[in-house]
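Memo subject: From amino acid sequence to discrete backbone structure tokens
Action wanted: Derive the backbone structure tokens from the amino acid sequence.
How to read it: Take the token row as a discrete description of the fold.
Attached in line: The record itself begins immediately under this heading.
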Amino acid sequence: MPRKDQKENQALPSLALVFGYIAIKELQRLEDRIRVLVRLGYGNQQIAVICDTTPMTVAVKKSDLKRKGFRGSK
């Protein structure tokens, strides 16, 4: 039987993903969704799950955004 701490740790990522979905629900373009999620501090894997794409696609889009002058969470 898993400990209480393990159960709580497993529940938190799901909640974080829900917040991510809420943050981008009105955005249509993948580039805009990634921009918002990066600002909120999500990593490539989490962004990929939220946007229903691959982590490599997220990495490429983030690279494109950097070339265009987007600085992320700073």
